[in-house]
């Protein structure tokens, strides 16, 4: 699956896109495909060398501007640092793609610092970046926020207790943002993924299996094509079939119902 040029996409979500977790795999593919659509891209990750390589490739292939920001997203000052690095840029799209798990072990076998690191990466950082980039999008009446989650959000799981929990946070947070920002013309979408064949997976010695794994380029293309199809869009036909077995109620209807009830309650508290 590939993404071809589309001026309407750039008009709605440009001129700049910020991609957190962009040094390789899905993030790098997103950067390349957004560049092909004419968006300038800010790439964020810890590995400066990889970021510079991705940024140079996007710039050379597509003639767009790129900016590489080497930043640990779990740092307490991450949002402040990113705000400074993007000051003056007209950011119309935020894609939070960071937050993969590098282990599957019982919660009690991990140091608490490891679990808190997951919370910082998957909960605090995307929330802080959405808070920073969201208001200007609302003021302009256009834009998009994408949180790339995982099918681990469907339910808690042994050996993934914290990971499934933080992914559930991302999912529910994105749905709430969708309900709040949609009236302002800003699209929000959570895009849960299944198994994706990335360089990180290859380094773990896992071989590519087309029956159970998607390629990064295909995942990126499907995400980009569905920015406006929130609040939740599960990436991959097989993954959607799995999710549908768990979610028996249409997610949009469910979010609208809960949002209406909570809004009514909030309004009643004012009187």
TrEMBL record:
SUPFAM superfamilies xref list: NAD(P)-binding Rossmann-fold domains (SSF51735)
Pfam families: adh_short
Keyword Transport among record annotations: no
The keyword Coiled coil is annotated on this UniProt entry: no
PANTHER family the record matches: 17 BETA-HYDROXYSTEROID DEHYDROGENASE TYPE 3, RH59310P
An example molecular function term from Gene Ontology annotations: oxidoreductase activity
Protein name per Swiss-Prot or TrEMBL: Short-chain dehydrogenase
The organism's place on the tree of life at top rank: Bacteria
Keywords: Oxidoreductase
Organism name: Mycolicibacterium rutilum (Mycobacterium rutilum)
